[in-house]
């Protein structure tokens, strides 16, 4: 297994041995791999509506990210918290660091965490993200919500 990889501009190092980096190569496309679990369920939509298949990730992951660039003083933390709430099911925290970067931990379903990492590449409207460094960690499940830390 690789120890690091780059996908869609996100450079990542893997610390958790059970995470397969191949499932993150194309976050918007088909995902596969023995570690990626899919739950398929069908749901009737009502009269005249076709049965739709819903595929949801059950894989819980944790990502630690450092964001560099013009990311302080531009509402990056508040917008990150807002994005986590809009995506839903993302827990963790975000904070400014003394070296002018922003640090965050995202936990939750794999697809939601990947969505947050994609959001971090763009950042808040006033920010100018130059680099995101992701380290995948063991999922802890200790966060109750998503908070701004000071």
Give the topology string: H per helix, E per strand. EEEEEHEEHEE
Helix coverage percent of residues?
10-25%
Which structural class matches the secondary elements? Answer: alpha+beta
**Count of individual beta strands:** 9
Span between N and C termini? Answer: 36 Å
Quaternary organization: single chain
Portion of residues in beta strands equals 35-45%
Query: Biggest sheet: strands, sense, closure?
Result: 7 strands, mixed
- Uncertain residue segments: 1-8, 14-57
**Overall mean confidence score, pLDDT:** 76
Can you list the strand order of the major beta sheet? 1-2-8-5-7-6-9
Radius of gyration: 16 Å
What is the 3D shape? globular
Count of individual helical segments: 2
Describe this structure in a few short sentences.
The protein has 150 residues and is of the alpha+beta class.
């Amino acid at each position: 297994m690789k120890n690091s990889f780059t996908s869609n501009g996100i450079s990542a190092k893997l610390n958790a041995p059970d995470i397969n980096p191949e499932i993150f190569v194309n976050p918007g496309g088909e995902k596969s791999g023995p570690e990626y679990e899919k739950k398929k369920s069908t749901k009737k939509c009502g009269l005249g509506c076709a049965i739709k298949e819903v595929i949801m990730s059950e894989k819980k992951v944790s990502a630690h990210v450092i964001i560099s660039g013009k990311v302080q003083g531009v509402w990056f933390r508040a917008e990150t918290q807002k994005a986590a709430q809009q995506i839903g099911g993302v827990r963790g925290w975000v904070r400014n660091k003394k070296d002018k970067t922003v640090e965050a931990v995202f936990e939750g379903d794999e697809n939601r965490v990947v969505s947050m990492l994609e959001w971090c590449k763009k950042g808040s409207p006033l920010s100018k993200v130059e680099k995101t460094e992701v380290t995948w960690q063991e999922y802890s499940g200790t966060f109750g919500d998503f908070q701004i830390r000071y």
